[in-house]
Amino acid sequence: MTKTLGLFFIILMAAFLLFYFWASSPNIDNAQQELMSAPIDEDTNFTKGDTLTIMTFNIGYLSGMTNNLAIEREELIYKNNLSGAKTLIRNSRPDIIGFQEIDIDSDRSYHYNQVDSLTKAAHFDHFYTSINWDKKYVPFPYWPIRFQFGQVVSGQSIISQFPIAKGEEQVLIKPLNAPFYYNDFYLDRLIQIVTIKVGDQDVIVMNVHLEAFDMETRQLHLEALKKQYLKYSIDYPVILMGDFNSNYSDQEAAMHSLLKSKYLRACYDRSTDTNNFTFSSENPSLLLDYIFYNDNWIKKIDVKILKEANQISDHLPVLMRFTLKDKNAL
Fold first, then answer.
1. SS3 of residue 299 by DSSP
2. What separation in angstroms does the CA of 201 have from each of 8, 13, 278?
3. Pick from 12, 19, 220, 315: most CB atoms within 10 A?
4. β-bridge mates for residue 190, sequence order
């Protein structure tokens, strides 16, 4: 009896380890982790002084306010929210969009390729997508098992009406205070950095999705982000946008250090004005999504929180209009 019980536990442990390593392994190889449209040498019909529009949107894989909840979701939710996102983009007419939490091939969102669908629907020709969550099976939410995410292929994406000359990303550290098995199934937090050709001017666009749950880790993410911003902010127009998972009122030294960076400006005032809140879309009470820019190269015209997005996502998108300053006059 003792030998039989011991053998049973050995088999059980072996099965668990096999599942663990299979589930935490990627679906695609490293060579496919970055997806970019081919650079195109074309006339963008851009004239100095023209107005440009940029949007940041954490679409929460189009799950609305059900994001991360252990509940049954029907395919109709994703179909309707995808349709709503297409309409929103067509109506707001941005030139550049930075997406976070956008699914490419995931069980949780019925395998809709949301990047492809939104890029084509908005007639954008240029994109740079970085896959930052690629697991054969994600056992979250933990219970009930039938509501777990399963296969996840998800990421961040920048799409543009202007050619993307090059792109790269910096993978940020995993949560410092989480156990190894948590991090093995956790997404990578990224800084996407692309160079977009706007007329004869290179514009640097950074798209981020920083750590949400571990403040110590998020501090390190913000410090890494500041270093990247300062590499470009003197010589190029820079847009820094995304889901920072940090409210203006948070007492985070790194956030306040970032805000003091030379030439860095926020697209809206640091205030408790509820009109500036982006999370949650159902009951906005936090400002987590930002567009920053360097005012030595960029002049802001106006900014808008797109409340008409309703509950396509649990975040509301931010839209900013701006012009590029004449580099010859700088």
1. strand
2. 66, 58, 31
3. 315
4. 171
**Are 110 and 116 a contacting pair, CB within 8 Å?**
no
Q: Looking at the DSSP assignment, which residues form a beta bridge with residue 164?
A: 196
Q: Are 70 and 89 in contact (CB under 8 A)?
A: no
SS3 154: strand
H helix or E strand, kind and range, residue 265: strand 264-266
Q: 85, 59 in Cβ contact below 8 A?
A: yes
Give the contacts of 212 (CB within 8 A, at least 6 positions apart): 218, 245
Q: Which two tokens stand for residue 203?
A: 């514009």
Hey, what's the torsion of the CAs at 56, 58, 59, 65, to 10 degrees? -130
Q: Which residues are within 8 A (CB) of 14 and not within 5 positions of it... i.e. 6 or more apart?
A: none
Per-residue model confidence as pLDDT tens digits over 17-53: 898 888 999 998 654 556 766 666 555 667 677 899 9
Enclosing H/E stretch for 195: strand 190-198
DSSP 37: P
Homologous superfamily, domain 2-329 = Endonuclease/exonuclease/phosphatase (3.60.10.10)
Gyration radius from the chain CA atoms: 21
Q: If phi over 0 gives left and psi between -120 and 50 gives alpha, with beta otherwise, what is residue 224?
A: alpha
Please report the pLDDT score of residue 28 as a whole number.
Answer: 81
Mean pLDDT calculated for residue range 71-100: 95
Task: Please report, in angstroms and rounded to a whole number, the separation of the first and last CA atoms in the chain.
Answer: 84
**Tokens 């040498």, residue located:** 41
Provide the pLDDT for residue 328. Answer: 62
Token pair for residue 282?
A: 């159902």
